[in-house]
Write a structure and sequence with these properties.
Rossmann fold
């Protein structure tokens, strides 16, 4: 009897509806804030090197191309792991940006080409850290005078990439981050999409890993 009265109580129903609307609003706000936080876009003016993550999706090629063409970069470094399949041993994880860049920006003499390809062994969760280590090593051995770099990555992966590179480079170079595409449209109701929400949680975990993982535990 008491339960029936509570259910039929209009004040109670109204209060429940208000709470539901409030929690929906908070969840939407927090979800979009998370996406904006992860999709960091903080390039450095007059950077000397543009680093592009090798797994960059094909649809983002033109943005990375434009960034290198219009910027005052001396070098374009593409860093990423190879396919495990022997037939694709010369390509990168998700695309062929390395070969695309070599053809697009090929110099008449290979020795002075601005494009440099760095293959990194597959270390799963550690791939971004390993790419940063390889890029830093290449710069130290070939052009130690370089002090400013920008790194291109995709969407919500930006915060993880920037954190990993800044920790690896330390005070040896200033690191900027470019999240592609530069003007990312927010997909309608993406937070209600199971796949979209899963990827944001995945990228958040990636950022926390890059932020707090002890560097001495990285594979050698």
């Amino acid at each position: 009897m008491h339960i029936k009265v509570l259910i039929c109580n209009p004040v109670l129903i109204f209060g429940v509806l208000v709470l539901l609307v409030f929690f929906c609003f908070v969840s939407i706000f927090c979800s979009n804030a998370l996406r904006e936080f992860l999709s960091l876009n903080k390039p450095i003016p007059n950077a000397q090197v543009l680093v592009v993550e090798g797994w960059l999706f094909n649809k983002l090629f033109s943005y990375a191309d434009e960034e290198f063409s219009t910027g005052k970069y001396r070098y374009l470094i593409v860093a990423g792991r190879k396919y495990s399949d022997a037939t694709d041993s010369g390509t990168f994880q998700s695309c062929d940006f390395a070969h695309y860049a070599e053809k697009k920006f090929a110099a008449p003499f290979p020795a002075v080409s601005p494009v440099h390809i760095i293959h990194v062994p597959d270390r799963h969760w550690h791939n971004t850290f390993m790419s940063a280590v390889a890029v830093k090593s290449w710069i130290r051995e070939n052009h130690p005078e370089i002090q400013r770099i920008n790194v291109c990555t995709a969407g919500s992966h930006a915060r993880k990439t920037w954190c990993a590179y800044t920790r690896i480079f330390g005070s040896s170079a200033e690191v900027g981050i470019i999240s592609l595409p530069p003007r990312q449209p927010i997909k309608k109701n993406w937070w209600l999409n199971r796949i979209g929400l899963k990827w944001q949680v995945y990228f958040l975990g990636g950022y926390l890993y890059a932020r707090f993982w002890p560097l001495f535990l990285l594979p050698r």
